[in-house]
Amino acid sequence: MSIAYLDPGNIESDLQSGAVAGFKLLWVLMLATIIGLLLQRLAARLGVVTGLHLAEVCNRQYQKVPRIILWLMVELAIIGSDMQEVIGSAIAINLLSVGKIPLWGGVLITIADTFVFLFLDKYGLRKLEAFFGLLITIMAVTFGYEYVTVKPNQEKLLQGLFIPYCKDCGTPQLEQAVGIVGAVIMPHNMYLHSALVKSRQVNRADKREVREANKYFFIESCIALFVSFIINIFVVTVFAEAFFNKTNADVVCVNASSPHSSLFPNNNETLEVDIYKGGVVLGCYFGPAALYIWAIGILAAGQSSTMTGTYSGQFVMEGFLNLRWSRFARVLLTRSIAVTPTLFVAIFQDVEHLTGMNDFLNVLMSLQLPFALIPVLTFTSLPSVMHDFANGLFWKVAGGLLILLICCINMYFVVAYVMSLHNLGLYIGAAVLSVIYLSFVAYL
């Protein structure tokens, strides 16, 4: 479950947050993680109390047409997440091979990795969990290395975490703050978490045992998200310390003979970084080791998030459609859908366009959020579903306000993204789609 808070889309959001706003948006990251934790708690409670995961409850509660629309929206989120994993892994492989393996080659390699995970799955859930633990440890060690190497200012770090204020922040910083929320809270993760808790044996006839299970799942989630939060802080603070308020001219160590020289024109424009450029600049400032260690961390993030999409896709398809596909067939379908556009961009465009896709995918994920949050709050508030464990008044009001806030943030994010493209036809199309989208959200 915590892997969804550490996928390449998240890492991209973290590093841009540090480079654009310095330490000023750390409190937004912390707040988004806490909100994510509370929502994960609701998803886990639903699975523990009912013995059904969120997609199965949606299948029982909604009519056929809205149920199918909801399923398509969640599938779209899973495919978007899959694309981010493919992009992140391809970039990491390209960096590790010093450009010898082209981006499209990295995309093709990531097709194979899913089936390796499926092979691991045959050996049992605990072994797979241990492997995920190993990948998270790799991320903690690699990004922790960058943190120790760069030595961020600890006073600024604490101020950024605990003072919810952004001095001298303009539109780029505000958009980045909104992007953090969209990148941290992942829609398909609610469906995944409500299903993962079913792997543990709970006697649902015994209220005391159900209450105890809810408590320990919450503690488990707190520990998992605390670890992912620390790793996210490593990334934000490294880029805040090293690259905030820097210009392209400051990247003096990328000389004309370097394969990366075209990335940084020698001018006084503000330095813009992404997963690819971030690795190059880290290597530039702190030695080649920093570049390779960064790439290993990104590869671990990309590989681990593979199975998040695989498992949630399996649960969503079975729950919404009562369709029992083999996991192999299901992965083959969604991975093909995710890889095809990514492969075309990797073949015919440069790394700039590939990393630019991550921004678009974060917007897409943000748009899908209500299709997970509204059902999970609705069903955990219904006594007919949750019996004695239904949400109290506080959770209903707080959850409702939270979802309203997230919907408003997402709409702002989408409007800002569309406006930046300067295309009248796109404005009109976006306006029509927004009306349809908001109507369905209101129906839910």
UniProtKB/TrEMBL annotation:
Keyword Magnesium assigned: no
Location relative to the cell: Late endosome membrane; Lysosome membrane
Keyword vocabulary terms for this entry: Ion transport, Iron, Iron transport, Lysosome, Membrane, Transmembrane, Transmembrane helix, Transport
Molecular functions (GO terms): cadmium ion binding; cadmium ion transmembrane transporter activity; cobalt ion transmembrane transporter activity; ferrous iron transmembrane transporter activity; lead ion transmembrane transporter activity; manganese ion transmembrane transporter activity; nickel cation transmembrane transporter activity
InterPro entries the record matches: NRAMP_fam
Major subcellular location class: membrane
Domain of life: Eukaryota
Bilayer-spanning residue ranges: 20-39, 69-95, 101-119, 131-148, 177-196, 217-240, 280-301, 328-348, 360-382, 394-418, 424-443
Any one annotated GO CC term: plasma membrane
Membrane topology note: Multi-pass membrane protein
Entry-linked NCBIfam families: nramp, Nramp_1
HAMAP family tied to this protein: NRAMP
PANTHER family: NATURAL RESISTANCE-ASSOCIATED MACROPHAGE PROTEIN 2 (PTHR11706:SF40), SOLUTE CARRIER PROTEIN FAMILY 11 MEMBER (PTHR11706)
Family under the similarity heading: Belongs to the NRAMP family.
Protein name, entry field: Solute carrier family 11 member 2
Organism: Catharus ustulatus (Russet-backed thrush)
